[in-house]
Amino acid sequence: MEADGEQVIGFKDIIGQDEAVNRLRSAIRLGRLPHALLFGGPVGVGRRTLAGALAGAVLCPNSASDESIDACGRCEDCRLLESGSHPDLHMIYKELAAHHPEATVRSSVMQELGVPIIRHFLISAAMQSPTRGKGKVFVVQEAELMSDVAQNALLKTLEEPPPGVIIILLCQRPEELLPTTLSRCSMIRLGPLPRNLVAQRLVQAGADEPQSRFWADFTMGSLGESLRLAGKDLYQTKMEIVHRLASMGRAGEGGLADDLAKTMEKLAKQEVKDVKDRDGGDLSAKLASRKSLAVMLRLIACAYQDAMRLKGQPEGQDVELVNSDQAQDIAAIAAKFTQRDLADIIEQLSEYERLLWRNVSPKLVWDNVVITCASAAPLVL
Ligand SMILES: [Zn+2]
Q1: Which end of the chain has fewer CB atoms at under 10 Å, N or C?
Q2: Does residue 379 surpass a pLDDT of 70?
Q3: How far, in Å, from the CA of 57 to the mean position of ligand 1?
Q4: Ligand 1 midpoint to CA 59 (Å)
Protein backbone atom coordinates (compact mmCIF):
# COMPACT_ATOMS: atom_id res chain seq x y z
CA MET A 1 0.00 0.00 0.00
CA GLU A 2 3.00 2.28 0.45
CA ALA A 3 3.55 4.58 -2.50
CA ASP A 4 7.30 4.95 -2.10
CA GLY A 5 10.03 2.64 -3.29
CA GLU A 6 8.76 2.45 -6.87
CA GLN A 7 10.49 5.50 -8.29
CA VAL A 8 12.56 8.44 -7.16
CA ILE A 9 10.43 10.57 -4.88
CA GLY A 10 10.06 14.15 -6.05
CA PHE A 11 8.48 17.28 -4.62
CA LYS A 12 5.61 16.63 -7.06
CA ASP A 13 4.74 13.49 -5.07
CA ILE A 14 4.12 15.38 -1.85
CA ILE A 15 0.50 16.09 -1.17
CA GLY A 16 -1.03 18.75 1.03
CA GLN A 17 2.24 20.40 2.09
CA ASP A 18 2.50 23.18 -0.48
CA GLU A 19 4.03 25.75 1.82
CA ALA A 20 6.90 23.48 2.89
CA VAL A 21 7.52 22.34 -0.68
CA ASN A 22 7.51 25.90 -2.04
CA ARG A 23 9.93 27.07 0.63
CA LEU A 24 12.39 24.30 -0.19
CA ARG A 25 12.06 24.70 -3.93
CA SER A 26 12.69 28.42 -3.85
CA ALA A 27 15.62 27.99 -1.42
CA ILE A 28 17.23 25.53 -3.84
CA ARG A 29 16.48 27.75 -6.83
CA LEU A 30 18.13 30.71 -5.12
CA GLY A 31 21.06 28.59 -3.99
CA ARG A 32 20.17 29.28 -0.37
CA LEU A 33 19.28 25.87 0.95
CA PRO A 34 20.13 25.80 4.68
CA HIS A 35 22.61 23.06 5.58
CA ALA A 36 20.72 22.08 8.73
CA LEU A 37 16.98 21.58 8.50
CA LEU A 38 14.35 20.34 10.88
CA PHE A 39 11.13 18.88 9.52
CA GLY A 40 8.66 18.98 12.39
CA GLY A 41 5.16 17.58 12.53
CA PRO A 42 3.06 14.54 13.33
CA VAL A 43 3.91 11.06 12.08
CA GLY A 44 2.64 10.21 8.64
CA VAL A 45 2.18 13.67 7.12
CA GLY A 46 5.12 13.35 4.76
CA ARG A 47 8.31 14.32 6.59
CA ARG A 48 10.23 11.31 5.31
CA THR A 49 8.89 11.73 1.79
CA LEU A 50 9.88 15.38 1.82
CA ALA A 51 13.40 14.48 3.00
CA GLY A 52 13.58 11.96 0.13
CA ALA A 53 12.54 14.61 -2.39
CA LEU A 54 15.10 17.03 -1.04
CA ALA A 55 17.82 14.37 -1.13
CA GLY A 56 16.92 13.69 -4.76
CA ALA A 57 17.09 17.38 -5.63
CA VAL A 58 20.50 17.66 -3.95
CA LEU A 59 22.07 14.44 -5.22
CA CYS A 60 20.74 14.17 -8.78
CA PRO A 61 23.12 16.14 -11.07
CA ASN A 62 20.30 17.06 -13.47
CA SER A 63 17.79 18.32 -10.94
CA ALA A 64 18.48 22.04 -10.71
CA SER A 65 18.16 22.54 -14.47
CA ASP A 66 14.48 21.70 -14.25
CA GLU A 67 11.88 24.20 -13.02
CA SER A 68 10.32 21.59 -10.70
CA ILE A 69 13.72 21.10 -9.01
CA ASP A 70 12.88 17.40 -8.83
CA ALA A 71 15.44 14.70 -9.45
CA CYS A 72 15.51 13.69 -13.13
CA GLY A 73 14.62 10.04 -12.46
CA ARG A 74 16.87 8.79 -15.26
CA CYS A 75 20.50 9.12 -14.17
CA GLU A 76 22.72 6.76 -12.20
CA ASP A 77 22.24 8.81 -9.00
CA CYS A 78 18.48 8.51 -9.38
CA ARG A 79 18.77 4.79 -9.96
CA LEU A 80 20.75 4.47 -6.73
CA LEU A 81 18.26 6.65 -4.84
CA GLU A 82 15.46 4.51 -6.22
CA SER A 83 17.02 1.30 -4.95
CA GLY A 84 17.75 2.88 -1.57
CA SER A 85 21.49 2.39 -1.97
CA HIS A 86 22.83 5.84 -2.85
CA PRO A 87 26.18 6.04 -1.02
CA ASP A 88 25.72 9.75 -0.23
CA LEU A 89 22.27 9.47 1.33
CA HIS A 90 22.65 8.44 4.96
CA MET A 91 19.65 7.48 7.05
CA ILE A 92 20.33 7.75 10.78
CA TYR A 93 18.11 5.79 13.19
CA LYS A 94 18.49 4.10 16.53
CA GLU A 95 18.64 0.55 15.13
CA LEU A 96 21.97 1.45 13.46
CA ALA A 97 23.55 0.54 16.79
CA ALA A 98 23.43 -3.07 15.54
CA HIS A 99 25.96 -2.11 12.82
CA HIS A 100 28.34 -0.10 15.01
CA PRO A 101 31.99 -1.27 14.95
CA GLU A 102 32.12 -1.55 18.76
CA ALA A 103 30.61 -4.67 20.26
CA THR A 104 29.43 -2.85 23.40
CA VAL A 105 27.34 -0.49 21.27
CA ARG A 106 26.01 -3.36 19.19
CA SER A 107 24.76 -5.14 22.27
CA SER A 108 23.21 -2.05 23.85
CA VAL A 109 19.48 -1.48 24.12
CA MET A 110 18.29 0.72 21.29
CA GLN A 111 15.99 3.10 23.11
CA GLU A 112 17.67 6.31 22.04
CA LEU A 113 19.94 7.82 19.44
CA GLY A 114 23.04 7.82 21.57
CA VAL A 115 26.34 9.56 21.02
CA PRO A 116 28.11 6.47 19.53
CA ILE A 117 25.58 6.34 16.69
CA ILE A 118 25.70 10.09 16.03
CA ARG A 119 29.53 10.19 16.15
CA HIS A 120 30.14 7.20 13.92
CA PHE A 121 27.31 7.36 11.40
CA LEU A 122 26.87 11.12 11.15
CA ILE A 123 29.74 13.29 12.41
CA SER A 124 32.59 11.09 11.11
CA ALA A 125 30.73 10.13 7.94
CA ALA A 126 30.07 13.80 7.18
CA MET A 127 33.82 14.51 7.23
CA GLN A 128 34.46 12.10 4.37
CA SER A 129 34.10 13.43 0.83
CA PRO A 130 30.98 12.50 -1.09
CA THR A 131 31.36 9.23 -2.98
CA ARG A 132 29.70 10.49 -6.15
CA GLY A 133 30.59 14.14 -6.15
CA LYS A 134 27.56 16.34 -5.63
CA GLY A 135 27.05 16.34 -1.89
CA LYS A 136 25.93 14.27 1.08
CA VAL A 137 22.56 14.16 2.77
CA PHE A 138 21.97 12.89 6.30
CA VAL A 139 18.43 12.24 7.49
CA VAL A 140 18.05 11.73 11.24
CA GLN A 141 14.82 9.88 11.97
CA GLU A 142 13.09 10.46 15.31
CA ALA A 143 15.58 13.20 16.13
CA GLU A 144 13.91 13.74 19.52
CA LEU A 145 15.45 10.41 20.55
CA MET A 146 18.95 11.95 20.44
CA SER A 147 20.40 12.06 23.93
CA ASP A 148 21.59 15.42 25.24
CA VAL A 149 25.18 14.22 24.89
CA ALA A 150 24.55 13.21 21.30
CA GLN A 151 22.96 16.59 20.54
CA ASN A 152 25.88 18.43 22.10
CA ALA A 153 28.33 16.35 20.09
CA LEU A 154 26.42 17.24 16.93
CA LEU A 155 26.22 21.01 17.52
CA LYS A 156 29.41 21.92 15.71
CA THR A 157 28.54 19.81 12.67
CA LEU A 158 25.04 21.32 12.58
CA GLU A 159 26.46 24.80 12.75
CA GLU A 160 29.17 24.35 10.19
CA PRO A 161 28.91 21.10 8.28
CA PRO A 162 31.63 20.20 5.77
CA PRO A 163 30.91 21.71 2.31
CA GLY A 164 28.08 20.01 0.44
CA VAL A 165 26.65 18.31 3.54
CA ILE A 166 22.95 18.73 4.32
CA ILE A 167 21.55 17.45 7.60
CA ILE A 168 17.80 16.95 7.98
CA LEU A 169 16.32 16.19 11.39
CA LEU A 170 12.88 14.58 11.37
CA CYS A 171 11.05 15.25 14.56
CA GLN A 172 7.55 14.81 15.91
CA ARG A 173 7.98 17.15 18.83
CA PRO A 174 10.73 19.71 18.09
CA GLU A 175 10.23 21.24 21.55
CA GLU A 176 11.85 18.13 23.03
CA LEU A 177 15.17 18.97 21.40
CA LEU A 178 17.73 21.14 23.17
CA PRO A 179 17.33 24.86 22.41
CA THR A 180 20.91 24.88 21.15
CA THR A 181 20.03 22.21 18.58
CA LEU A 182 16.85 24.03 17.55
CA SER A 183 18.64 27.33 17.11
CA ARG A 184 21.01 25.80 14.55
CA CYS A 185 18.31 24.37 12.31
CA SER A 186 15.87 25.97 9.89
CA MET A 187 12.51 24.62 10.92
CA ILE A 188 9.94 23.54 8.41
CA ARG A 189 6.64 22.54 9.95
CA LEU A 190 4.38 20.04 8.29
CA GLY A 191 0.79 20.20 9.41
CA PRO A 192 -1.88 17.49 9.37
CA LEU A 193 -3.33 16.84 5.94
CA PRO A 194 -6.92 17.71 5.03
CA ARG A 195 -8.95 14.67 6.09
CA ASN A 196 -10.79 14.42 2.79
CA LEU A 197 -7.46 14.14 1.04
CA VAL A 198 -6.32 11.37 3.39
CA ALA A 199 -9.61 9.48 2.96
CA GLN A 200 -9.34 9.86 -0.80
CA ARG A 201 -5.82 8.40 -0.82
CA LEU A 202 -6.96 5.46 1.29
CA VAL A 203 -9.75 4.73 -1.18
CA GLN A 204 -7.17 4.85 -3.98
CA ALA A 205 -5.07 2.39 -1.97
CA GLY A 206 -7.99 -0.03 -1.91
CA ALA A 207 -9.83 0.64 1.37
CA ASP A 208 -13.59 1.13 1.25
CA GLU A 209 -15.24 4.49 1.89
CA PRO A 210 -16.42 4.13 5.55
CA GLN A 211 -13.08 2.64 6.60
CA SER A 212 -11.15 5.39 4.79
CA ARG A 213 -13.17 8.12 6.44
CA PHE A 214 -12.73 6.50 9.86
CA TRP A 215 -8.93 6.24 9.70
CA ALA A 216 -8.57 9.75 8.28
CA ASP A 217 -10.52 11.14 11.25
CA PHE A 218 -9.03 8.78 13.83
CA THR A 219 -5.46 9.77 12.91
CA MET A 220 -6.45 13.43 12.60
CA GLY A 221 -5.16 13.66 9.06
CA SER A 222 -2.05 11.50 9.08
CA LEU A 223 -1.77 9.66 5.78
CA GLY A 224 1.13 7.44 6.82
CA GLU A 225 -0.58 6.39 10.05
CA SER A 226 -3.87 5.82 8.22
CA LEU A 227 -2.24 3.62 5.60
CA ARG A 228 -0.45 1.69 8.31
CA LEU A 229 -3.60 1.07 10.36
CA ALA A 230 -5.73 0.28 7.30
CA GLY A 231 -3.11 -2.25 6.25
CA LYS A 232 -3.55 -4.19 9.49
CA ASP A 233 -7.14 -5.31 8.92
CA LEU A 234 -7.91 -3.57 12.17
CA TYR A 235 -11.12 -1.98 10.97
CA GLN A 236 -13.31 -5.08 11.36
CA THR A 237 -11.87 -5.56 14.84
CA LYS A 238 -12.68 -1.97 15.75
CA MET A 239 -16.28 -2.39 14.55
CA GLU A 240 -16.68 -5.51 16.62
CA ILE A 241 -15.12 -4.06 19.78
CA VAL A 242 -17.22 -0.88 19.66
CA HIS A 243 -20.36 -2.92 19.07
CA ARG A 244 -19.64 -5.20 22.03
CA LEU A 245 -18.86 -2.24 24.28
CA ALA A 246 -22.16 -0.67 23.27
CA SER A 247 -24.13 -3.85 23.89
CA MET A 248 -22.78 -4.86 27.28
CA GLY A 249 -24.49 -4.10 30.57
CA ARG A 250 -23.02 -2.70 33.77
CA ALA A 251 -21.65 -6.11 34.73
CA GLY A 252 -19.48 -6.25 31.62
CA GLU A 253 -19.39 -9.09 29.13
CA GLY A 254 -17.85 -12.47 29.83
CA GLY A 255 -15.19 -13.27 27.27
CA LEU A 256 -14.58 -9.71 26.09
CA ALA A 257 -11.38 -9.25 28.12
CA ASP A 258 -10.03 -12.57 26.80
CA ASP A 259 -10.85 -11.60 23.25
CA LEU A 260 -9.20 -8.20 23.66
CA ALA A 261 -6.06 -9.86 25.05
CA LYS A 262 -6.01 -12.28 22.11
CA THR A 263 -6.49 -9.48 19.59
CA MET A 264 -3.62 -7.58 21.20
CA GLU A 265 -1.30 -10.59 20.92
CA LYS A 266 -2.25 -11.08 17.29
CA LEU A 267 -1.55 -7.42 16.50
CA ALA A 268 1.75 -7.55 18.41
CA LYS A 269 2.94 -10.57 16.42
CA GLN A 270 2.01 -8.80 13.20
CA GLU A 271 3.87 -5.68 14.33
CA VAL A 272 7.07 -7.64 15.05
CA LYS A 273 6.83 -9.15 11.57
CA ASP A 274 6.10 -5.78 9.91
CA VAL A 275 9.10 -4.11 11.54
CA LYS A 276 11.30 -6.98 10.44
CA ASP A 277 10.04 -6.83 6.85
CA ARG A 278 10.15 -3.05 6.62
CA ASP A 279 13.34 -2.03 8.43
CA GLY A 280 15.03 -5.35 9.09
CA GLY A 281 14.88 -4.39 12.78
CA ASP A 282 13.95 -6.51 15.77
CA LEU A 283 11.08 -5.22 17.85
CA SER A 284 10.81 -6.84 21.25
CA ALA A 285 7.59 -8.73 21.93
CA LYS A 286 6.99 -6.52 24.92
CA LEU A 287 7.31 -3.28 22.99
CA ALA A 288 5.08 -4.71 20.27
CA SER A 289 2.45 -5.63 22.87
CA ARG A 290 2.59 -2.16 24.30
CA LYS A 291 2.16 -0.55 20.89
CA SER A 292 -0.79 -2.79 20.12
CA LEU A 293 -2.35 -2.11 23.50
CA ALA A 294 -1.96 1.62 22.90
CA VAL A 295 -3.71 1.48 19.52
CA MET A 296 -6.57 -0.60 20.93
CA LEU A 297 -6.99 1.68 23.94
CA ARG A 298 -7.07 4.69 21.62
CA LEU A 299 -9.75 3.02 19.49
CA ILE A 300 -11.82 2.25 22.58
CA ALA A 301 -11.31 5.72 24.06
CA CYS A 302 -12.32 7.24 20.74
CA ALA A 303 -15.77 5.61 21.03
CA TYR A 304 -16.27 7.11 24.49
CA GLN A 305 -15.05 10.52 23.27
CA ASP A 306 -17.62 10.29 20.51
CA ALA A 307 -20.29 9.41 23.08
CA MET A 308 -19.29 12.48 25.06
CA ARG A 309 -19.49 14.66 21.96
CA LEU A 310 -22.93 13.26 21.27
CA LYS A 311 -24.12 13.98 24.81
CA GLY A 312 -22.76 17.49 24.70
CA GLN A 313 -24.26 18.42 21.36
CA PRO A 314 -26.59 21.41 21.40
CA GLU A 315 -30.24 20.68 20.68
CA GLY A 316 -30.99 20.26 16.99
CA GLN A 317 -27.36 20.36 15.87
CA ASP A 318 -25.50 17.56 14.22
CA VAL A 319 -22.22 16.50 15.73
CA GLU A 320 -19.32 15.03 13.74
CA LEU A 321 -18.37 11.62 15.09
CA VAL A 322 -15.14 9.80 14.31
CA ASN A 323 -17.19 6.61 14.55
CA SER A 324 -19.87 7.96 12.24
CA ASP A 325 -19.92 4.45 10.76
CA GLN A 326 -21.31 3.19 14.08
CA ALA A 327 -23.59 6.01 15.12
CA GLN A 328 -26.10 3.65 16.76
CA ASP A 329 -23.45 2.03 18.92
CA ILE A 330 -22.14 5.43 19.98
CA ALA A 331 -25.69 6.53 20.87
CA ALA A 332 -26.08 3.35 22.95
CA ILE A 333 -22.88 4.11 24.87
CA ALA A 334 -23.94 7.73 25.39
CA ALA A 335 -27.32 6.58 26.75
CA LYS A 336 -25.67 4.44 29.43
CA PHE A 337 -23.54 7.09 31.10
CA THR A 338 -23.49 10.62 32.41
CA GLN A 339 -20.97 13.03 30.93
CA ARG A 340 -19.00 12.79 34.15
CA ASP A 341 -18.83 8.97 33.83
CA LEU A 342 -17.67 9.26 30.26
CA ALA A 343 -14.93 11.69 31.24
CA ASP A 344 -13.80 9.27 33.99
CA ILE A 345 -13.71 6.35 31.57
CA ILE A 346 -11.64 8.28 29.04
CA GLU A 347 -9.20 9.37 31.70
CA GLN A 348 -8.80 5.86 33.04
CA LEU A 349 -8.26 4.36 29.63
CA SER A 350 -5.28 6.64 29.24
CA GLU A 351 -3.93 5.34 32.56
CA TYR A 352 -3.99 1.70 31.50
CA GLU A 353 -1.29 2.11 28.89
CA ARG A 354 1.24 2.81 31.60
CA LEU A 355 0.46 -0.38 33.48
CA LEU A 356 2.07 -2.61 30.91
CA TRP A 357 5.42 -1.00 31.70
CA ARG A 358 4.96 -2.03 35.32
CA ASN A 359 4.88 -5.71 34.38
CA VAL A 360 1.18 -6.03 34.97
CA SER A 361 -0.15 -8.95 32.93
CA PRO A 362 -2.05 -7.88 29.82
CA LYS A 363 -4.98 -10.08 30.86
CA LEU A 364 -5.33 -8.14 34.11
CA VAL A 365 -5.20 -4.86 32.21
CA TRP A 366 -7.96 -6.00 29.83
CA ASP A 367 -10.11 -7.27 32.72
CA ASN A 368 -9.94 -3.80 34.19
CA VAL A 369 -10.54 -2.06 30.88
CA VAL A 370 -13.79 -4.02 30.52
CA ILE A 371 -14.86 -3.18 34.09
CA THR A 372 -14.10 0.49 33.49
CA CYS A 373 -15.94 0.55 30.18
CA ALA A 374 -18.95 -1.28 31.62
CA SER A 375 -19.42 0.68 34.80
CA ALA A 376 -17.02 3.64 34.91
CA ALA A 377 -15.65 1.98 38.05
CA PRO A 378 -12.24 3.24 39.10
CA LEU A 379 -8.94 1.47 38.61
CA VAL A 380 -8.46 -1.37 41.07
CA LEU A 381 -4.90 -2.40 40.19
ZN1 LIG B 1 18.78 12.13 -11.80
Answers
A1: C
A2: no
A3: 8
A4: 8
Instruction: Answer whether 160's CB lies under 8 Å from 11's CB.
Output: no
**What's the whole-model pTM score?**
0.75
Distance from Cα 15 to the centre of ligand 1, integer Å: 22
Q: How far apart are CA 120 and CA 113, in angstroms?
A: 12
Half-sphere exposure of 180 (CA within 13 A, CB side): 12
CA of 137 to the centre of ligand 1 (A): 15
Residue ranges and CATH numbers for the domains of the chain are 11-189 (3.40.50.300), 232-375 (1.20.272)
DSSP 269-321: HHHHHHHHHHHS----HHHHHHHHHHHHHHHHHHHHHHHHHHHHPPTT-----
Spatial CA neighbour of 323 closest among 233, 243, 204:
243
Distance 27 CA to ligand 1 centre (A): 19
Between the CA of 77 and the centroid of ligand 1 the distance, in Å, is 6
For ligand 1, a single-atom ion, which residues have Cβ within 5 Å?
60, 62, 71-72, 75, 78
103 burial (CB, 10 Å; 0-12 / 13-18 / 19+) is exposed
Quick one: which of 90, 84, 99 has its CA closest to 167? 90
Give per-residue pLDDT as tens, 286-331.
788 888 999 999 999 999 999 999 998 887 788 889 999 999 999 9
pLDDT mean over 48-66: 88
Cα–Cα distances in angstroms (integers) from residue 210 to residues 235, 253, 323, 353, in the given order = 10, 27, 9, 28
Q: What angle (nearest 5°) sits at the alpha carbon of residue 354, between those of residues 349 and 357?
A: 145
